[in-house]
């Protein structure tokens, strides 16, 4: 009778435990559940791009980093060398004696002196022209000061006596850049000194945050490029010449990512604008827990712009109706049991607001289940023995 009671109790507890295994506590989804996101057909679940962190992906990321470098935007033509709408020109005309067109004094001996005529400041109109006496309206937009001088002089050559012309820029209203920083934004004119990015930063009073938390963004011709201030200072090739119409933005938001799952501690971790590799991120998380983590299941969750997906992946999402400005829910997977992953994770960048998740190992779930099953059985058996005794 005593043995029968023990057996019944064991079977009852075991059956209840099997029913309960679905709601055993866990730090997050298993590796299989995460990888199944890419094949999910449920309408309630958004489509997810599942990408393995391996050699081809790392090469694609490295190539994209090179093309997005500020040095790739370097161009010696800054736009200051030509006149634009809104600029104010100062035009001076010399006419040799005897000056007939613009007038001049003639002495009793018939000798004369060269006559100098300084025109009122000429503002380049919205049509891109200035008005010159005895010449009319001249189109000057896109021309250098020397080209404008030669143009005016050529038009006066048959009307004036050996005319000479000097054109200078009295006021630069069009060739400038906009520098934006929290609390202070300015419009900085470009000069023959050929200003660069750091000149713009100095003009606005520098950054209000620490250097490691500051990012410089350049907007040019509807293209946006970013660089950490630390990299800009340490690499002179990134300090490129500014162009007319550039927008320089000083961003001082601190960068963070969130660690979750079978790691040392679930937390939000800050890092500098210069960037962080996945290898460094795992180190800052305290590494993987030996008894819990699945080394094949290290994941990075991120919303990735379509234009930043691997080249081979982009057409798949474009066919689904996504455009280049769309953010694609993306899961990057790293298998640390592959020795090459130790190299790949050094080149894989962590982005601001990423979630780095390490799944539990299947064996850890089994151990947790066994502990859940046998702990009440052991205590129950002990209680029965105590009752019987």
Coarse morphology: elongated
Low-confidence stretches: 13-24, 106-110, 363-370, 380-384
- So how many helices? 10
Describe the oligomeric state of these chains in a short phrase: single chain
Structural class: alpha+beta
Average pLDDT level? 80
Beta strand count: 19
The string of secondary-structure elements, in order, is HHEHEEEEEHEEEHEEHEEEEHEHEHEEH
Taking strands numbered 1, 2, ... along the chain, how are they ordered across the largest sheet?
Answer: 1-17-16-19-13-14
Q: Give the DSSP E fraction (strand runs of 2 or more residues).
A: 25-35%
Task: Provide the helix percentage.
Answer: 25-40%
Major sheet summary line: 6 strands, mixed
How far from one another are the termini? 14 Å
Rg, please? 36 Å
Please describe the structure with a list of short key phrases separated by commas or semicolons:
single chain, alpha+beta, 6-stranded mixed beta sheet, 10 helices
